[in-house]
Amino acid sequence: MNGDLTYKEYQTMEPTEGMYKWEIEVNIKSTSKLSEVFSSSHTDALISMSDDKHSCYIALNSAENTDGMPNRDFVLLYRYDYIHQPDVKLVKHSEY
């Protein structure tokens, strides 16, 4: 292959030495408790939640996958306990 690759060519490329491998590490720290953390794209990602549920470590090493090459975006989703609770309070001003 020479020059720029089209999207269709990229999808059908065989892994080679010139390609890169993924190694992703994510640390989440939250003041609220995390209720859910998962990767919708990579179910083999290592997810380690702290005992107090205020932090989480996520790791993905593509070299441990079958061919070691990225073949899709890495998507990480998380939710904390109080996501649907308002955190603003409205009060009457003393002069108005």
Structural commentary:
This protein has one helix spanning 7-11; strands at 23-29, 34-39, 46-49, 55-61, 76-80. It has 96 residues and is mainly beta. It has one domain (21-96). The longest helix is centred in the first third of the chain and has 5 residues, at 7-11.
Strands in their spatial order, largest beta sheet: 1-4-3
- Which geometry do the CA atoms define? elongated
Distance between the termini: 73 Å
- Largest beta-sheet characterization: 3 strands, antiparallel
Radius of gyration: 21 Å
Percentage of residues in strands:
25-35%
Number of strands: 5
Structural class: mainly beta
List keywords for this structure.
96 residues; 5% helix; mainly beta; 30% strand; two-stranded antiparallel ribbon; three-stranded antiparallel β-sheet; 5 strands
Short description:
The protein contains one helix and five strands. The chain has one helix at 7-11, and strands at residues 23-29, 34-39, 46-49, 55-61, 76-80. The strands form two sheets. It has a three-stranded antiparallel beta sheet with strand order 1-4-3, with no helix packed on it. A two-stranded antiparallel ribbon has the order 2-5.
